[in-house]
Amino acid sequence: MSEGIGASVRRKEDKRFITGKGKYTDDIKQENQAYAAFVRSSHAHAIVKNIDASEAEAMDGVVAVLNGHQLTADGIGNIIAGWAITSKDGSAMNMGAWSALCTEKVRYVGDAIAIVIADTQEIARNAAETVMVEFDILPAVVSPEKTLESGSPQIHENAPNNQIYDWEIGDEAATDAGLASATHITEMEIVNNRLAPNPMEPRAAIAIYDDAEEHYTLYTTSQNPHVARLLLSAFYSVAPEHKLRVIAPDVGGGFGSKIYVYPEEIACLWASMKTGRSVKWTSDRSEAFLTDAHGRDHVTKAKMGFDANGKIVGFKVDTIANIGAYMSLFSSVTPTYLYATLLSGQYDMPAIHGNVRAVYTNTAPVDAYRGAGRPEATYLVERMMDTAALEMGVDPAELRRKNFIQSFPYQTQVIMNYDSGDFPGCMDKAQAAADIAGFAARKASSASRGKLRGIGYSSFIEACGIAPSAAVGSLGCGVGLWESAEVRVNPVGTIEILTGSHSHGQSHETTFAQLANDRFGVPIDSVQIVHGDTDKVQFGMGTYGSRSGPVGMNAIVKALDKVEAKVKKIAAHVLEASEDDIVIEAGEVKIAGTDKKMAWHEVGLAAYTAHNLPEGMEPGLKEGAFYDPINFSFPSATLICEVEVDPETGVTDIVQFTTADDFGVIINPMVVEGQVHGGLAQGIGQAMLENVVYDDSGQLLTGSYMDYAMPRADDLPSFTIEHNNVPSPSNPLGLKGCGEAGAIGAPPAVINAICNAIGNNNLSMPATPSKVWAALQEVSAQQAAE
Amino acid sequence: MTEISMVVNGKSVKADVPDNTLLVSFIRENLRLTGTHVGCDTSQCGACVVHVDGKAVKSCTTLAVSVQGADVTTIEGLANGDLHPMQAAFKENHGLQCGFCTPGMIMSATDMVARYDAEGKKLDEAAIRDELEGNICRCTGYHNIVKAIADGASKMTNA
Prior knowledge:
Chain A is of the alpha+beta class. Chain A is 29% helix and 23% strand. Chain A has 19 helices and 28 strands. In chain A, the strands form 7 sheets. A 7-stranded mixed beta sheet of chain A has the order 3-5-1-12-9-10-11, with helices on both faces. The model of chain A has no long low-confidence stretch (mean pLDDT 97). Chain B is an alpha+beta fold. Helix content of chain B is 36%, strand content 16%. Chain B has 5 helices and 5 strands. In chain B, strands 2-1-5-3-4 form a 5-stranded mixed beta sheet, with helices on both faces. In chain B, helix 2 runs antiparallel to helix 5 and helix 3 crosses helix 5. The radius of gyration of chain B is 15 Å and the shape is globular. The mean pLDDT of chain B is 97.
């Protein structure tokens, strides 16, 4: 069976996970292990007047209680945002200070105030409970709209009216002119609900300070250990970069929330140095709800204009993005360049204007969560399309078809240059697989059982493969977004691939090995993928934004190119042939058309014995590469959701969910479909179940799995996944990325389907049974009035 | 402190533990069997499921002293040989991604198959989804977990 590109190879990494031998951060224990617990704010907004830790310090087993004044005195730097956004008036964003441990003021419930180190986790937590913090309570604000009102509580001194920036994209005058020419304008107010990412492994860290070497090691639940090391050294001044090793071992999911360096890792590293103990902290789920960066939370007003033929003539968007109490690493870019640059969707729009105001509130920081900006854009555009179709009395699929971009490359009005796609083809495949022709009969059958059946579309495009370094640099990004790789062929011919990407569920240990198999014909069992350790792997940028395929894998391809070239030189020399005549097939290096050949391992051995190499060639067989993409990649899809609603209870069943995706070239279809399934579950979760709720005083009401509705097996259907792949012309492998697709595309398909079923377009996420039932009562009341 | 003794994965173990020690802490910290995970603090996620006297329990809400003398099986002790058929089915059907919920999923799955077999009931897709009420996965969307359990069930029954 083939193990190369396109084969659904079973995963190499599975054995350790299915036998309980995975090694996650909390599974690791050091000699003389101490444990950390954090003293956190119980108020959303308050002045910290005094911290009294005397009782805690006197407890048996307590090693130390350390606070923000000591942290600041030791020169530990404030937490940064990685992307500078400039307001439309040219001013820099108003970024407030974020210290890992608060000193003067707390700004959300869960804000860290002090770290308690003790001999056991239980003692640390009990001691943290005894630390008395005297607060001067201030009024709090949690709503992104209210926070902008004059008289609202001022959260950071340097952000007047709690506004961080007021940014725009596109051409406002042209958009206004387009809208003025429209024969129909669809106008909506849309809320994109706040979500908690909830990887099943809570965040954790173990910090180990070696006094003799003045060296630090951090085990952490990170999607990007090198980025963490860079931040911890260059910005937070915890340790010099060469004296800090960051290891992200097995990581139990991330979905964006494990991109960032949080206060806890900073405090643990610093506390390890202060106490001379190895310091371990493991978040519990309640702490995760309070402090892991949340996602989404937009309030948007939008107008989309159409001409008499149903062609879009202008799209105007005004969004307020809730950033929470502090600016997390990618919080500034998520609602701007990752959001508004996708407002054109799959459609040929002649004029677009997007305005985004980012605001502080007394809530947990909000940052990139699976999809990051693109789900918000997709939900907006695709709800507008269905609503417009409803208002104009046309079929929603036909309205989409009429506006689909047909030829590529296509320059949108909002920066992105789409390199490829086949939007009508995805729509065709999705409609065929979803049996649209049979929908009327199914609806009638539902009606005969007293149920309401509906169908909803979502045709989306996203920008992945983040991203060309110079381009993102010109837009304010603080780093380059290339990826690195190294391919080491050992003397016996086995291969190690070292990658800057990080796998926390994405299956890299299998799919990356498939690249080596595809190139050299070596079995994937002889290929080891090494990742997640800054002492082993050269600097890399990590995994987020569906970039491990389109960027990370292409870095491996560049390194494989170099290895292949050297292998051919060595074989040509040994076999006394021309390099051009050498071919590598099925683990053999041959002179094409002859029976003269070397086994793969013989070339490896020749490279390392170096007894007979071409004149001037260095021994060894190891090549590295950095790959900087030339463009984003643009996965796209049409999703069709079919629901059945019980009008008596508002309970909605998803009876069928179909996608037809364009991911470009696919390395492992089994893995790709698995990624889509997981994304769809999160998207459906957003649409029907999940919602982070704060009360007006800033207390989190959804702080556990008893209150925050995670999708469970019986909430979801089995999915039908179709492929309509057009290889990306922008990278050597032709990949587009698949990690976020489902989460981006699913929410509007679900809401459009429910609205279609119940005959009421006024429905917000999450569409819980109570909301659906209430929407049905509105319909009944209206019908009664007529 | 109480002295507890039990059989874990076929081996007799004994220890003095504080009375409030949870079974999951005993398994993870005292026995260093770290395949049993803690994913929440409200007994909802099921990452901590183990078998006590042949029945699935959430070890995060079980006191170690309450299973005095019991026969406990964790994910590390499930296989009688290389892989248990359910473990093999999870691999074959790509029923895991990050792997964190997987031990609990597999322990719940083998328990549900045993119960349905004992009662002579059919474990179809709807039943599997219903039975997974107490196990949360954030990666797979459950699609392949459901497939894996159906496949594992038939392999267990035919084993």
